[in-house]
Amino acid sequence: MYSAAENAAAAAAAAERTAFRGAEKRYKLYKTLPHRPKSRKRTTTGTKPTDLSDVVDFKAVLDGFAGGRDLPPGILRFDCDGFDRPVFCIEDRPGFFFIPSALTIEEQCYWIRESLATFPQPPNRANLTAIYGPIYGLFNAAQNQKVLIETEDTDTLVDHELNGSKSSPHSQKFLFAETSDVHRVETCKSIAALALLKKLRWSTLGLQFDWSKRNYDVSLPHNKIPDALCTLARKMAVPALPFGEDFHPEAAIVNYFGPSDMLGGHLDDMELDWTRPIVSISLGCKAIFLLGGKTREDVPIAMFLRSGDIVLMAGEARECFHGCSLPWPLQSRMCDFG
């Protein structure tokens, strides 16, 4: 008989040996250019560029398709009546759709700004909420080089436009102040708004997701997903829907990634109806997306994700493990409860 701790350790060790984990390790912090040390001394481990020859590049697929070239083996063009963008799918991953360059540069810039300035605004919750409570105007505060402080003496420092209503108990405890004003109050905690912005890892729109319980908490206050984002999601979800059906998003999770972050292999299994698609919008720098199978033992397919690309996962694809290695983009995941 083994203890619970021993069983957990054995399970963790087994997970480290899976095909999916092997791919994560292979592509983690991938390097596309060879390292050139200043001296001729022997280079250290990790400076060799990662072999990306097996990574599917849908930008190249799109360019080749536009030029009349054949598609790579296993990649299919998906014809969708009334949809004005090229859509590709993978032969042995039914329900997975890739829409390269779905957004224009102007659209990407707009949604990047919304992701930073608007989406983390209360009542939307973020990873910072548990520590600091609702934070109003984080992006503007970072632009103006302000500092978040914890203090009871806020009369001279409150910026009503940045910090919102006084009705929130947290807004009385953590407020943004000018850097020059911080020394005027006794502060328990202080952190630069820019540093705080860099710590942002997720925010939720619409119905709020409780990460501690891994479910949607309908009792938490929330706003509807912005109309413009709903319109974009409905438009892009068409290839993954039966003809004539509409898409009604009720919740979204926005993931923010830094240069050393990654999103480990997982299933999006908290929604009630898996026949409805997930719409994933990528913004920012290039990443590698791993699409596995129904177990972690299935060898995942690696593909580049570029800013403006959109991925749809519906039906059987909802049962596939997936994740990002060296995920540099902001990535917005849109869910539909049907």
Please give a structural write-up.
The chain has 338 residues and is an alpha+beta fold. Among the domains are: 19-27 and 51-113 and 224-326, Jelly Rolls (Sandwich), CATH 2.60.120; 128-153 and 171-199, no CATH class. The protein is 23% helix and 23% strand. The chain has ten helices and 17 strands. The chain has helices at 4-15, 19-27, 58-66, 105-117, 129-132, 138-143, 160-163, 169-173, 193-198, 227-236; strands spanning 75-78, 87-90, 96-99, 147-150, 174-177, 189-192, 202-206, 208-210, 215-217, 249-255, 263-266, 278-283, 287-291, 301-305, 310-313, 322-325, 330-336. Strands 1-2-3-15-12-17-10-7 form an eight-stranded antiparallel β-sheet. Strands 11-16-13-14 form a four-stranded antiparallel β-sheet, with helices on one face. A hairpin with a 5-residue loop joins β2 and β3 (96-99). It is globular, with a radius of gyration of 22 Å. The N and C termini lie far apart (45 Å). One of its GO terms (cellular component) is cytoplasm. Keywords: Dioxygenase, Iron, Metal-binding, Oxidoreductase. InterPro entries: Alkb, AlkB-like, AlkB-like_sf. Residues 196-324 form the Alpha-ketoglutarate-dependent dioxygenase AlkB-like domain. Belongs to the alkB family.
CATH topology of the domain at 19-27 and 51-113 and 224-326: Jelly Rolls
Look at the structure and give the CATH class of the domain at 19-27 and 51-113 and 224-326.
Mainly Beta
- Determine the N-to-C terminus distance: 45 Å
Quantity of strands, as a count: 17
Unreliable stretches:
39-46, 154-172
Cofactor: Fe(2+)
Domain Alpha-ketoglutarate-dependent dioxygenase AlkB-like: 196-324
Family: Belongs to the alkB family.
Protein name: Alpha-ketoglutarate-dependent dioxygenase alkB-like isoform X2
